[in-house]
Design goal:
This protein is of the alpha/beta class. It folds into 3 domains: 311 residues, FAD/NAD(P)-binding domain (3-Layer(bba) Sandwich); 107 residues, Alpha-Beta Complex (Flavocytochrome C3, Chain A, domain 1), CATH 3.90.700; 83 residues, Fumarate reductase/succinate dehydrogenase flavoprotein-like, C-terminal domain (Methane Monooxygenase Hydroxylase, Chain G, domain 1, Up-down Bundle). It is built from 16 helices and 16 strands. It is globular and about 70 Å long.
Length: 547
C-alpha cells in the first residue's frame, strides 16, 4: 500500500512540528507527520527543561552571536548560520510560540518576561516555563497541528529506510542520476506491515543519538534512527564526533540519569566535591559553575577519575529559599524526591551523561541535505551553528527556525514546481521487499536485542565518551565492526519490528560517531582526545583547556 502526500515529515518534536505548521498554511497542501511513539508528545523536545534562547533585557544581536561563537570552540561553520539564528530566532519565538501557540513563558512579579541564565551566556536571555519548557512548547504546537485539516499525524509508525532513486527506483538508469529521496518505507505498529509513504519532499526530523550511550538524558526514542537512515541514503554527515554531555544528571539508584537543568546553576547552585570543595572556581575562574558544558563536564569527569568519586554534588539548597525550589524547578524537585532525596535540604549527587549531538546530516540555511528532495531539521541535522559544543538552550531555537525555513523553502512556488516535476509514478518505486529469509521468520528475541544494545552503549560510554584516545577508539571500532556483522545477520533473519530497526540504527550511528572521532586527532570542544593535547583544566581563558 502507498500513502501519498505533498510533504512527509519524519519526527514530531519542535523542528518537525514547526515544519508542518509552516507548510500547512496552504490548505491545499497535504502534509503527513510520522512519529514512532504512540503519543505524539513523546520526543526529545518534551524533556527540554531549561528553556529557549530569546533576547534578554539589555541584550543585543552581537552579544548573542558572540556567546554562541565562543561556546562552539571556534568551529561554527558557516559563521553566517549563527548570525541567522541570533537574528531571526527570537522574533520567531514570539510569533510562532507566544502569539500562535499561546506558550505562557514565566513572568516576574511585574508581569514582564522572566529571563534565566545558563552556562556560557554572559547575560540572562532564556525564556522558560518552570523546568518543563519543552512540554509547554509541544502542547502548544501539537494543539495547532491537530487543528489543521490538511495535516495527518500518524503515531506508532517507524521509518525503516528512506526511499531513494538510486537504490529503490525500478528505472535501471537511476543509479547514474543524482540521488533523490521520494519518501520512506514505514513499519506500522498495528498491522506489522511496511508501507510506502511517498512525497514530493521529505523532511527528516527524527531527533538525536543519546541512547547510543550507556548514560544519557535522552528518552528511549533517541537511538540514532535519522542519522543512520540518512547515511544509508547517501546523505553527507559531518561533525558527528561532537557529542555534548550534560554536566549534571541525577546520580542515584533508579533515577535513570534524570536531567538536572542548567538553569539550576543559573540560579546560583554550585558544584562541590563530596568533601565540599568548590572545584569550578579553580577550573574556570571567570565563569565558575556557568562555564560552557564541555568544560564543566570534563572537570567533573576529571574529579571523579582523579579522586575516585562516584559523583560530585550540586548544592541548590544553599542558593535559593526552600519554598522557591519546588516552584521554580518542579521537575527537578519531583525527580529528587522520587529517588529519596530532598533538594531543599541537601546537595544533589550528579554525574555527566550524553545529551546532545552537535553533528548530523549536513544542511544549508534552508535545511536542504545533499540528497535531492531530502531536508533535515532539528538535532538530526548539522546546520553548523553548534560547532564543537552547543550553547545551552539554542537547540530548541535552531529546531524552530530551521523547521520554519525548511517549510518556507518547500512551499515556495519554484521549489514546489521542481519537486513535483521530479516525482516519479508510484509504480516506479517498488513496495518494501523484505529479505527472503525473514519473511516467515520469528520475531526478535528481546534478550538478544537488549544484550546487543547494552554492549553498544557500554562501548560508546567507555571508549567514545568524555575522554577519548587512540587505544580506546581503535578497540571501539574493532568491537563495533564485529557487532555489526552479528546484528546485520540478526536483522536479515528476523521478522521486522521497531526494536530491531532501532538496534540496527543504533549500531550504525555508533559506528559513524566513532569513525569520525578516530579520524579527528585534534581535541576541540566536546571531542576531547587525551593523546591530542596536554591535559589541563587551568582556566577557561587558557586556550589549551578548550582546544
Amino acid at each position: 500500500m502507498a500513502i501519498e502526500a505533498d510533504v512527509l515529515v519524519i519526527g514530531c518534536g519542535i523542528a518537525g512540528a514547526a515544519t508542518a505548521l509552516r507548510l500547512s498554511a496552504d490548505t491545499q497542501r497535504q502534509v503527513v507527520v510520522l512519529t514512532r511513539a504512540e503519543d505524539a508528545l513523546e520526543s526529545n523536545t518534551r524533556y527540554a527543561q531549561g528553556g529557549i534562547v530569546s533576547r534578554g533585557i539589555d541584550d543585543s544581536l552581537e552579544s548573542l552571536v558572540r556567546d554562541m561563537l565562543d561556546a562552539t570552540s571556534g568551529l561554527a561553520e558557516p559563521p553566517g548560520a549563527v548570525r541567522l539564528l541570533a537574528k531571526e530566532g527570537p522574533a520567531l519565538v514570539r510569533k510562532r510560540l507566544m502569539d500562535d501557540a499561546g506558550v505562557a513563558f514565566d513572568r516576574d512579579t511585574h508581569g514582564a518576561l522572566a529571563f534565566g541564565r545558563e552556562g556560557g551566556h554572559t547575560i540572562p536571555r532564556i525564556l522558560h516555563v518552570g523546568d518543563m519548557t519543552g512540554k509547554a512548547i509541544m502542547d502548544g504546537l501539537l494543539s495547532l497541528l491537530r487543528a489543521r485539516t490538511n495535516v495527518q499525524l500518524v503515531t506508532g509508525a517507524t521509518a525503516v529506510d528512506l526511499i531513494t532513486s538510486s537504490h529503490h527506483s525500478a528505472d535501471p538508469l537511476a543509479v547514474y542520476q543524482p540521488i533523490r529521496c521520494h519518501g520512506a518505507y514505514v513499519l506500522d505498529s498495528l498491522d506489522g506491515r511496511v508501507h510506502r509513504y511517498l512525497a514530493k519532499a521529505t523532511v527528516l526530523a527524527a531527533g538525536g543519538i543519546g541512547r547510543v550511550y550507556r548514560h544519557t538524558t535522552n528518552p528511549p526514542g533517541a537511538r540514532g534512527d535519522g542519522l543512520a537512515m540518512a547515511s544509508r541514503s547517501g546523505a553527507r554527515t559531518i561533525n558527528t564526533e561532537y557529542v555534548q554531555f550534560h554536566p549534571t544528571t541525577l546520580a542515584l539508584p533508579g533515577s535513570n540519569n534524570a536531567l538536572i537543568s542548567e538553569a539550576v546553576r543559573g540560579e546560583g547552585a554550585k558544584l562541590l566535591t563530596p568533601d565540599g570543595r568548590h572545584f569550578m572556581a579553580q577550573v574556570a575562574p571567570k565563569w565558575a559553575d556557568l562555564a560552557p558544558r564541555d568544560v564543566v563536564s570534563r572537570a567533573i569527569h576529571h574529579e571523579m577519575v582523579e579522586h575516585g568519586y562516584p559523583h560530585v554534588l550540586l548544592d541548590l539548597a544553599s542558593a535559593m529559599p526552600k519554598a522557591q525550589i519546588p516552584e521554580r524547578f518542579p521537575t527537578v524537585h519531583a525527580s529528587c524526591l522520587a529517588a529519596g532525596l530532598d533538594p531543599t535540604e541537601e546537595p544533589i549527587p550528579v554525574v555527566p551523561a550524553a545529551h546532545y549531538h552537535c553533528g548530523g546530516v549536513q544542511v544549508d540555511t534552508y535545511g536542504r541535505s545533499t540528497v535531492q528532495g531530502l531536508y533535515a531539521v532539528g538535532e538530526v541535522s548539522c546546520t553548523g551553528v553548534h560547532g564543537a559544543n552547543r550553547l545551552p538552550s539554542t537547540s530548541l531555537l535552531e529546531g524552530l527556525l530551521w523547521g520554519e525555513r525548511a517549510g518556507a523553502h518547500i512551499a515556495s512556488r519554484e521549489q514546489s514546481a521542481a519537486l513535483a516535476d521530479a516525482q516519479p509514478a508510484s509504480a516506479d518505486l517498488p513496495s518494501w521487499q523484505p529479505v527472503s529469509s525473514a519473511v516467515h521468520a520469528e520475531g526478535a528475541d528481546h534478550v538478544l536485542v537488549f544484550r546487543d544494545q547494552r554492549t553498544i552503549q557500554n562501548i560508546m560510554w567507555l571508549y567514545v565518551g568524555l575522554a577519548r584516545n587512540t587505544h580506546r577508539l581503535k578497540r571501539a571500532l574493532k568491537d563495533l565492526n564485529h557487532l555489526w556483522e552479528m546484528i546485520d545477520d540478526f536483522y536479515r533473519s528476523t521478522r521486522l519490528s521497531d526494536e530491531l530497526v532501532g538496534l540496527r540504527n543504533t549500531a550504525q550511528a555508533a559506528w559513524i560517531i566513532t569513525s569520525a572521532a578516530w579520524h579527528n586527532r585534534r581535541s576541540c570542544g566536546t571531542h576531547f582526545r587525551e593523546d591530542g593535547q596536554s591535559r589541563t583544566f587551568a582556566s577557561l581563558d587558557d586556550t589549551e583547556s578548550r582546544l
